């Protein structure tokens, strides 16, 4: 049988699931080729399991996410899947889900392919969840971490459930992000394993000592038994316990990565690159020099935070909560208004028409601050529209102003002058909200006077696959 030289990358995003098959290609300048890729909408939004979460609760049905994952795998070429020698998994950070050890899934032969179906699992409480208000967050113990704790962070959500739904927590004995869950199910892990990238995104994790703030958490009555063991990104979490589609049993699976870090890994060709990702959320990222250590006292008012990357290095990240999701809310609002007026229009039609209209509208005085969800550093700054004049009310004006507002909001968090001071020479765009929207691209170029190029489609999935490919190549050298 031919040596297996292909790796599979997965990105369990907030809006869509992506998968990519990557193969080493010594003749290619990048060193690899993307053999095939696929994206499928998850459509996983669902009502919060705890009524006390209120309208700010943001939860997703894990079954629908896994269904979208299996749709992606089913769409990939079988003859390539059987050559997979490693699986890299990434996904939406911060969120938390729970399951019962040993009962988290059931392997079935759905159709011709063996797949796993979620069983005793909770919903995923995502990074967009707003149930932890500022008063509740202020009641939590101070973290021993350089990252402050925000609503939607795993540990904050667990503290909230401990206070408002203690019985709910008692029915589970394992927890992790959605991508930690997928790794644990693929490998049949009895205890979930987490990379420091995802541990840091939960809060109460000290990236210097690579350990949870166990004493602080225990003293506050936190169920520390739910905290996964933590390991370095790039490490193997285990091997597939079953054949999965045409992927052979015993295939190495890497510990799950943050989607942001996986995207950067696929796009950032040199340290002087900045990566601007617009997916459901938005992030502007620059790499910090090796040896850089963030200040250990968290500053919740700081718009830039430092996220662990690989090899104990850090990324400087301006992470806005308001990106593609705000465009999606605008589209959904228009579709709802037209339905109220008796008209039925597909969302995809609205996206293409509004982007087309805005592309014709090169400029506008209309000004939109798009922060419908507030920001972690400015939770009370909600969205606003100013400079409304009778001449600026077309779909083109509003869409141009909305795209400009999303990019300008990010720029206000991390101005291009700061990027220049850090030695940034180029911006790489990633994320499908950006790749599918010419107007967003124009606004990025307008706000950031650097050469702008675009990374891989399904960038985080490609990045997760590349991490496993690099590991496989390193192993072959020794
Ligand atoms: N038909 C479309 N045309 C342009 N943009 C779209 C379209 N459908 C969705 N989007 C944008 O893409 C965003 C989701 O991007 P995606 O990369 O799938 O997110 P994630 O990686 O967070 O799951 C949506 O929030 C929306 O703004
Ligand atoms: O919020 C931050 C960082 O705090 C982001 O980098 C974070 O990774 C993303 O918001 C989540 O992972 C969701 O990503 P995506 O679904 O928008 O791609």
UniProtKB/TrEMBL annotation:
The keyword Zinc-finger does not apply. InterPro entries: ATPase_NBD, FGGY_N. Residues 7-263 form the Carbohydrate kinase FGGY N-terminal domain. Gene3D superfamilies: 3.30.420.40. One of its GO terms (biological process) is glycerol metabolic process. GO terms for cellular component: cytosol. It catalyses: sedoheptulose + ATP = D-sedoheptulose 7-phosphate + ADP + H(+). It is found in: Cytoplasm. Keywords: ATP-binding, Cytoplasm, Kinase, Nucleotide-binding, Transferase. Its EC number is 2.7.1.14. It is an enzyme of class 2 (transferase). It comes from the Eukaryota. The keyword DNA-binding does not apply. GO terms for molecular function: ATP binding; sedoheptulokinase activity. CDD domains: ASKHA_NBD_FGGY_SHK. Pfam families: FGGY_N. Its main location: cytoplasm. Acts as a modulator of macrophage activation through control of glucose metabolism. Belongs to the FGGY kinase family. This is Sedoheptulokinase. It comes from Delphinapterus leucas (Beluga whale).
């Amino acid at each position: 049988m031919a040596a297996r030289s292909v790796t599979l990358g997965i990105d369990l995003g907030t809006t869509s699931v992506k998968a990519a098959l990557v193969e080493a290609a010594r003749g290619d300048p990048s060193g690899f080729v993307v053999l095939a890729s696929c994206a499928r909408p998850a459509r996983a939004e669902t009502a919060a399991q705890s009524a006390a979460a209120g309208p700010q609760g943001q939860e997703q049905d894990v079954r629908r996410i896994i269904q979208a994952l299996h749709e992606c795998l089913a769409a990939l070429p079988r003859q390539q899947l059987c050559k997979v020698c490693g699986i890299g998994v990434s996904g939406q950070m911060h969120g938390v889900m729970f399951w019962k050890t040993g009962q988290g899934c059931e392997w079935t032969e759905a159709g011709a392919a063996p797949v796993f179906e979620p069983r005793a699992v909770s919903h995923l409480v995502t990074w967009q969840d707003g149930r932890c208000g500022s008063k509740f967050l202020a009641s939590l113990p101070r973290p021993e971490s350089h990252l402050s704790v925000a609503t939607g962070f795993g540990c904050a959500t667990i503290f909230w459930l401990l206070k408002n739904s203690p019985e709910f927590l008692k029915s589970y004995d394992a927890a992790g992000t959605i991508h930690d869950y997928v790794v644990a199910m693929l490998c049949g892990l009895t205890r979930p394993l987490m990379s420091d990238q995802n541990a840091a995104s939960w809060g109460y994790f000290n990236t210097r000592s690579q350990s949870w703030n166990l004493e602080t958490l225990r003293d506050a009555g936190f169920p520390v038994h739910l905290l996964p063991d933590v390991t370095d990104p790039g490490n193997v979490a285990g091997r597939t316990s079953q054949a999965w589609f045409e992927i052979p049993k015993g295939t190495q699976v890497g510990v799950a990565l943050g989607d942001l870090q996986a995207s950067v890994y696929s796009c950032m060709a040199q340290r002087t690159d900045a990566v601007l990702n617009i997916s459901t959320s938005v992030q502007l990222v620059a790499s910090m020099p090796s040896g850089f250590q963030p200040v250990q006292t968290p500053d919740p008012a700081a718009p830039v935070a430092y996220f662990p990357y690989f090899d104990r290095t850090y990324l400087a990240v301006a992470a806005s909560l308001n990106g593609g999701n705000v465009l999606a809310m605008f589209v959904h609002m228009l579709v709802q208004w037209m339905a109220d007026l008796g008209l039925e229009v597909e969302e995809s039609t609205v996206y293409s028409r509004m982007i087309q209209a805005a592309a014709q509208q090169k400029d506008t005085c209309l000004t939109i601050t798009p922060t419908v969800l507030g920001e972690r550093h400015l939770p009370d700054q909600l969205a606003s529209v100013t400079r409304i004049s009778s001449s600026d009310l077309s779909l083109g004006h509003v869409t141009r102003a909305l795209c400009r507002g999303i990019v300008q909001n990010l720029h206000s968090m991390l101005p291009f002058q700061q990027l220049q001071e850090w030695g940034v020479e180029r911006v790489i765009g990633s994320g499908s909200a950006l790749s599918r929207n010419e107007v967003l691209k124009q606004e990025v170029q307008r706000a950031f006077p650097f050469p702008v190029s675009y990374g891989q489609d399904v960038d985080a999935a490609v990045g997760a696959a590349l991490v496993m490919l690099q590991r496989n190549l390193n192993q072959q050298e020794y």
